[in-house]
Amino acid sequence: MTTINRRNDYRAPMAQDKQTNENLKSAGLSTSKALVLVFIIFVLSLTALGLLYSQFPKLEEHEKQHLKLPWNLEDAKQLGLVLDRYKDKYFYEVLLGVFLVYIFLQAFAIPGSIFLSILSGFLFPFYLALLLVCCCSAIGASLCFFLSNLLGKKLVRRFFPERAAQWSKAVTKHKNNLLNYIIFLRVTPFLPNWFINMSAPVIGVPLTPFALGTFIGVAPPSFVAIQAGQTLHTLTSTSDAWSWTSITILSIFAFISLVPVLLKQKLREKFD
Fold first, then answer.
1. Under DSSP, is residue 263 helix (H, G, I), strand (E, B) or coil?
2. What is the pLDDT at residue 7?
3. For this UniProt entry, which segments traverse the membrane (predicted)?
């Protein structure tokens, strides 16, 4: 009997692993197919950016070297000078270019979107730049959400099934306050945006509060970046955009985003 029980003990985890693998396979695309699909989407996106570049007005030789993704503030300054020269005559082409590149960076969690936010403040009127950045952030983050949901969730469930289940339970517990939490995370610098974009679908955050929370939550920090962009050529680093006033404003917005959650908890405690 002892031998039989031991065999059953060994078979139980094997059966659970087999069942988990079957559930993963039945959930949709396999991990390898999802990886290939993400790669294809990335290549197609690069191709679209290449086509956009080919449609841009003919540049001077010394300008071509500056028409690239801004990896630092100096790149943003040089790119701003080039785009500002063509902005009046080719306004919608420049606007579309910034729009698509911003979404591309957000969708594939590529650094550099902060420089595009600053650049938007330099190129466009303040309220247009703010709307542009908020829309690009929400759309790009949602695409990153989709890609992570396609691939990242499968990897986490495959290698960390117990932890994924715990995270999902935590999200379910706070499902009525997810919008407020997303807004809070976007306003505050505690977690980088690329990490929020990639981890949200893995832990079971629905797309609607994620996208809406992103649109609302990125507005306050984007306000600071866009305002700094209006004096782009005087900036020496991105930290120049921050002041005690801007930090105080962001702290107030972060607190306001959690006020409904705190009120709900107080009311629940009172009536319980």
1. helix
2. 46
3. 34-54, 94-118, 124-148, 241-263
